[in-house]
Amino acid sequence: xxxxxxxxEALSVLMFLAVVAVLALGYPVVFSLAGVGFGFGLLGxxxxxxxxxxxxxxxxxxxxILNNDVLIAVPLFILMGVMLERSGIAEDLLKTLGEVFGRMxxxxxxxxxxxxxxxxxxxxxxxATVTTMALISLPAMMRVGYDKRLASGLICATxxxxxxxxxxxxxxxxxxxxxxxxxxxxxxxxxxxxxTLSVGDLFAAAFIPGLVLSGLYTLWVIGHIIFRPASxxxxxTHRSPxxxxxxxxxxxxxxxxxxxxxxxxxxxxxxxxxAASVGAMGAVLLTVVRIVGEALAPRxxxxxxxxxxxxxxxxxxxxxxxxxxxxxxxxxxxxxxxLVVASAFALSRPDTRARLVDVATxxxxxxxxxxxxxFVIFLGATVFSLVFTRLGGEEVVxxxxxxxxxxxxxxxxxxxxxxxxxxxxxxxFEILFIVVxxxxxxxxxxxVDPVWLSIMLAVNLQTSYLTPPFGxxxxxxxxxxxxxxxxxxxxxxxxxxVGLQIVCLGLLWAFPQLALWLPGVIYAH
Length: 525
Known about the structure:
Blueprint: H1 4-24, H2 29-46, H3 58-66, H4 73-87, H5 89-101, H6 107-120, H7 126-143, H8 148-159, H9 169-188, H10 199-227, H11 243-266, H12 272-300, H13 302-347, H14 350-390, H15 393-402, H16 408-422, H17 428-445, H18 450-462, H19 472-480, H20 487-493, H21 495-510, H22 513-523
């Protein structure tokens, strides 16, 4: 006779397989997660393995999510990314650095990596980064004779860096989920004062692995320069006058934003939410200044570049002085004053006022759509997690992982393999909200470091953007690539970069301090 316990565990396994199948078929994520959860909850009720009164806990769980102070950073980071995407700052970076590096062999590829890393640390939106680089860099790379596979793989891979290089919305959600799991495990072990895990911990921990991944991509291009020089020829071009000023104008705003956001979090002078608000305000300032520059360029020409050069130079020096004299409050006040001055000037001119209103409208709409999409998925995953747990799914997964040879190492390896395979069929957030709440408590109970585990998962989740058949970066590139770039070239082009991501995972496995050293230094863990 099948007991309710066995029935519940069997249903939990079927439930996981069902939700993966439904999502892989392309059904809407939130309805799939919530629908499968409610459906198996009813099946469990009739099998005597699930009490429908558990659904009464959903309102409290929803309120806890919406009332979470850390998650307020998510819409602010999304606003910052969308604003920078719409402002055209990415185009300036690509064109300027392409001119700087274009005369050297492989220079275009190296400029794509540099720009992709900078955009990852400022926008955090994979689709926008891949699309922008594909529209601007890909035609130039193909025109000078770059290997199609190298060019397409490089753009897809560097565009996906936004998921590991902070600030990343994936890291914010991962921190919230991992902190909840860590607290539960520590309390179960009798530690009633558990050590907290913050978004700042993960941002600091992800910084070096993100640089390692960028470095591996750079080494791959250098390898092509040395061993296959015909695959990455130089772009013959003459540097136009005033290039130095334009480099400063292109780089200074992005670097200022990165330093303001990441620097304030890592230095411990601002919470992630406070830093996200500074980042959103800074992105608005950058956009306003660029709109003003675009409007004045036809009339004043090179004088605009010179004025912007001195504006950003003064901004950098002024903010450094304010930071030394008045700390974070001074930097915030100075940025706010600069934003008010730039906005007042922009709104006083009819040509810039219309452009500014149009950008603000588009950014607000897109930010709202992305924010709602992510949080609705989170709410749907809450239903799935509740039913899966109450059916006994955690016990099934726990027994499975504890039975793996090698103890904790074997269990982590199995989870990483499952996440990698699921990444071929599911989106990053789908895996994040389904797998991590199930596997993390079990692995943490086996004394796996939560910070190290989080970064391993983050790097692994990044591969979901590259692995066919459903790698989203591949779709983004295919949507804007010229017809002469075949889909088979794109798929083959990402293979070595997926291999480099696996190498990065291996380095993190062999040298955990790549993830643990910086947060240990900053937060004295």
